[in-house]
Each structure stands twice: as C-alpha cells, then as structure tokens.
Design goal:
Layout: H1 2-5, E1 11-12, E2 26-34, E3 39-43, H2 63-66, H3 69-77, E4 87-92, E5 97-102, H4 109-122, E6 125-129, E7 137-140, E8 147-151, E9 156-160, H5 170-184, E10 191-195, H6 203-207, E11 212-217, H7 220-232, E12 238-242, E13 259-264, H8 275-281, E14 282-290, H9 293-305, E15 310-317, E16 327-333
Parallel strand pairs: 1-15, 5-6, 10-11, 10-13, 11-12, 13-14
Antiparallel strand pairs: 2-3, 2-4, 4-5, 6-7, 8-9, 14-16, 15-16
Length: 334
C-alpha cells in the first residue's frame, strides 16, 4: 500500500482463508495428441511454454473434476477427432459439472454419441464449442438445467453458463460477499453503485439491504444474465447497464445521479481512468475488491490524495491457495 499508493491503512483485517484443496470450480485444460508418445495428453499448459503437463489428477480442482483426468484421456483417445480437440473448459456449480469441448473440425455422429455416453455415465453436462465463446451449444442433456451457485446467507441463487466469469473459490466467495456487505454497512435508504458487477455476485445480495442498486458491466450477454438472475431472485430494486468502464469520458443514464455507497471489483487493470467519475458520483463510502494488489494500491492512493477519501480497513483473501495470487479488499470513506 505504501510502495504503490503512498498510503497506509487504518486497520488490517484478518485474512479470509478457506479450503486449500478441491476449491477450484473453473479451469481450462489443454489437450494434445503427442505422436512420439503415442497418446493424448490432458492437463494444464506449462508456465512460459507450449507443453502440456500430463496429469493424472489435480488436487486443487473440484474433486468431481480431478477424478476424471484419466477417464478424459481414455475418452479422447477413442474419438475420431482426437487430434483436433485443443482444450476442455470446466465449470462446476453447486450441483452440476459442465465440460466444454473445443473442436477445430466438425464432430462425427459417432464422436457425439461417445461424448453423450461419457456425460451420462459420469453425471456431467457436455457442451461443444466449434468456434468462439458465442458458438457454445449443449450436447447433453439437450434441455439441461443451467449451472448455478448459491449465497445461502442472503437467499440468493445465481445461474451461469459454462463460460461465464465466476469467482473460482466458492467458500472464499461466500466469505467475501459477507465481508463486502459488512464493510458497506448498508441501510434501507442507501442507493448503491456496483461497478464491474458481472452476473450480480455482489449486486443481488446488496439489494436485500438497500433501497436500490445499480450494476454496471461491459459485456451485453453478462448484463442480460444479471437481469435474469435478479428476476430469478424476485428482486425489483436492481437496474443493470452495459458500459465500457475503462472510458474516462463515460456518460450514461446512471452517471446522472449520485450514490450513497459504491462497490468496485475491477479486472487487473484497476479503475484509474474513471476515478474522477467515481469521486463525483459517490457521496459516502467505497469498498474496493481487487485481484491485483499493485493497481489496487495505486488507485486507492489516487482516491486518498487527490479526491479526499480516507482509507480505513484493508485485508487479503486467499482466493487461490498454492499460488502467489491473492484478492485484496479495502474500505474508503469521505
């Protein structure tokens, strides 16, 4: 905080810690047929290289996925398209597991039947991705239930597609949402702004305790899903907007009003471009969640030194055990 932002917190919060194994519910596995070895490899791509680490299991992945590694190798080896499937994307909800097979050539009916049989036999949903993310389609079950995860403390259930962004660590996410609401200290007269809102992971729980909440996100499909999730949870005091939140000249209907409190949860680049707008819109309190402590500290330094916010508590969240990455959180007040 001092090195990048020139600021120091009033208080350091206890770190949020969850399970060290079996926590990861999103992943992208590389697939490659290696002629010299005469077999298909399934695993993660090695750091700074194009090789695939040939894995038998992965202890940080959700157990239902980790136990499928060897079975996936056997499956891929039986397909006609064993040389043209470069990756498998994994998404795990509270109940369902989805596997998205990226394929560079059209699959034969035999291959499709083999994939359906695998999905049925192991209780996982099978999706195909012939081109970009928008081309994903369900192979089995054809009318399957959407993936979903719950935030039971707030009576919220969020539905998502296999390629939607969600926090990969379910336990830390639940703790994080609870901490965000505690730090915001919401009441039923608050009008709240949620920037980079995604599917409504924070927006919808906040709506249980505020007068109204506005969520803003840059992706049209994500905002449509957020609106559907608000309806699914019977929340009528939420509005969502699609806007580019890296645009320093951003103007929209939601920028024409002020807010008592705000939540910022940006990507790694942070919020530097729109700090002047944030300062103009937010009257009282900001909670900032970040996956990049460097830009987090930089942005907080700007808010404190140029825009007269006071830095209160700061904490870290061990969202990614066994890696060097952490999430950080801070609360600022006028």
């Amino acid at each position: 905080m001092w090195h990048f932002g020139g600021v120091q917190p009033y208080q350091v919060l206890p770190p949020l810690i969850g399970p060290f194994f079996g926590y990861r519910r999103r992943a992208r596995l590389g697939v490659r047929f290696v002629a010299k070895k005469g077999k298909v490899l399934v695993g993660f791509r090695e750091k700074n290289g194009h090789y695939i680490a040939d894995l038998k299991q992965c202890e940080i992945l959700h157990p239902r996925v980790s136990q499928l590694f060897l079975k996936l190798k056997d499956l891929l080896s039986t397909l006609d398209a064993y040389q043209t499937i470069p990756q498998i994307e994994i998404a795990v909800g509270d109940e369902e597991v989805a596997l998205v097979f990226r394929h560079l050539t059209a699959l034969t009916e035999k291959d499709k039947a083999t994939l359906v049989s695998f999905g049925r036999g192991h209780g996982v949903a099978i999706y195909l991705q012939p081109e970009g993310p928008e081309s994903i389609l369900s192979l089995w079950p054809l009318e399957g239930e959407q993936l979903c995860y719950s935030l039971p403390e707030f009576d919220i259930e969020i539905k998502f597609s296999p390629t939607d962004f969600i926090q990969i660590n379910a336990e830390i996410n639940r703790q994080m949402v609870k901490l965000v609401l505690e730090l915001l200290d919401l009441n039923l007269t608050d009008v709240v702004l949620d920037l980079f809102c995604g599917l409504g992971n924070f927006t919808l729980p906040m709506a249980r305790f505020a007068d109204s909440v506005v969520g803003v996100e840059g992706n049209q499909q994500t905002v449509q899903s957020a609106c559907q999730n608000a309806a699914h949870n019977k929340l009528k005091n939420v509005e969502f907007y699609v806007n580019n939140l890296q645009d320093p000249h951003l103007k929209s209907r939601w920028t024409e009003q002020t807010y008592h409190k705000a939540l910022l949860d940006p990507p790694r680049a942070g919020v530097l471009e729109i700090i002047p707008l944030i300062s103009k819109l937010v009257e009282s309190r900001i909670v900032y969640v970040s996956c990049n402590p460097a830009t987090f500290a930089r942005d907080i330094g700007e808010l404190v030194k140029k825009y007269h916010f006071k830095l209160g508590s700061v904490g870290v969240l061990d969202m990614f055990p066994h890696t060097t990455h952490i999430e950080a959180i801070a609360v600022l007040q006028r």
